[in-house]
Amino acid sequence: MKLQRSGYLAGIALTATLALAACGSDNTSTGSASDASAAPGSCGTGSLTAQGSTAQKNAMDEWTKKYSAKCSGASVNYQGTGSGAGVQAFIQGTADFAGSDSYLKPDEQPKADAKCASGPALNIPMVIGPIAVVYNVEGVTGLQLDSSTLAKIFSGKITKWNDPAIAALNTAAKLPSTAIQAVHRSDESGTTDNFTKYLSKTASADWTYDHAKAWKAPGGTGAAKSDGVASLIKSTPGTIGYVEFSFAENGGLAMSKIKNGAGEFTELTGESAGKTIEGAKVVGTGNDLKMDIDYATTTPGAYPIVLVTYEIACSKGSSKAADIKAFLTYTSGSDGQAALGDLGYAPLPASIQSKVATSVASIS
């Protein structure tokens, strides 16, 4: 199902475009300056193998299809194995680049750097995807939740749908007395890392497990990958879980309104997610673009649970450097980012796009 995400474009100001040419057809010998085929090196010539984030899988499927069609002889095989598996594959040298919904951790960065022959591994933001809190409760629509209540649900402290804490936030709802089945990712996931980071930063009194790619809290039910969580929620009454926005929409799942730092219960839309991303800060150095998201944002109308998917790639020394650079030039360019709006994602804000352009251009 193709999703119309015009709200994203409204929510994130794209006031500038990258000076990057998208990859053009090898069959075109002439063209204007804006024609991608006129840009030397705009297309790779070999094959790439990559894996990782399932949150960006729908974007990668679209990108690899269009890139291969434009660039004769170039191909990218991306497998959605989960962020943790993707990072490990990159470190072990079985992936040319990896997708991860959180940047490399302090213990992962030196291992990733060692994989690169003559330069550090870069964290390059490429896809913005809000995290939806999805649920399946008969007769309940427009469920409202705050971070404290979410922390208690996912840590097993709240076990019934008609618990007073949930009822206090949903005074007009007829909540059943059925048991809550909280669903989390069973594999290591950047989506889990971001969701638990939100809980640890906004509900520390109720969430004592910090944040991690692997689920740390006791109890609950695990499901593999984003589509596994979405499928279990859809088929099982009484469940609640977290998935990237595009999976929630593709599955037709009910999404909770989440209370932000301004005290508002906010529906997940492109505009509300964009307001949170606009406040994110780049905390990496040089061409490494780690980002810090303010989950406690007080911006009115902001939806607070969002993630950024990074492409993890060597800055220098990879034997596939030219092909990696060509593909990431395409995904971060105007054509690649424009495709995200119809897939349930958000294009990079202009201020981040310019930094991504510089980072990708540095790969050699």
CATH superfamily of the largest domain: Periplasmic binding protein-like II
Helical coverage, percent range: 25-40%
Which spans have pLDDT < 50 for at least 5 consecutive residues? 1-41
Strand residues, percent: 15-25%
Secondary-structure-based class equals: alpha/beta
The global form is: elongated
Distance between the termini: 38 Å
Quote the CATH topology of the largest domain: D-Maltodextrin-Binding Protein, domain 2
Q: Report the order of strands and helices.
A: HEHEHEHEEHHEHEHEHEEEHEEEHHH
Number of strands: 14
> How many helices in DSSP terms?
13
The total number of structural domains is 2
- Please state the CA-atom Rg, rounded to the nearest Å: 20 Å
Q: Indicate the multimeric state.
A: single chain
Please give the CATH class of the largest domain.
Answer: Alpha Beta
Using the 3D structure, state the CATH architecture of the largest domain: 3-Layer(aba) Sandwich
Main β-sheet, in a few words? 9 strands, mixed
Arithmetic mean of pLDDT: 88
Write a structural description.
By secondary structure, the protein is an alpha/beta fold. The chain folds into 2 domains: 6-25 and 39-130 and 308-361, Periplasmic binding protein-like II (D-Maltodextrin-Binding Protein, domain 2); 133-274, 3-Layer(aba) Sandwich (D-Maltodextrin-Binding Protein, domain 2). The chain has 13 helices and 14 strands. The strands form 3 sheets. Strands 1, 2, 3, 4, 6, 7, 8, 9 and 14 form a 9-stranded mixed beta sheet that branches. A 3-stranded mixed beta sheet has the order 5-10-11. It is elongated, with a radius of gyration of 20 Å. The model is unreliable at 1-41 (pLDDT under 50).
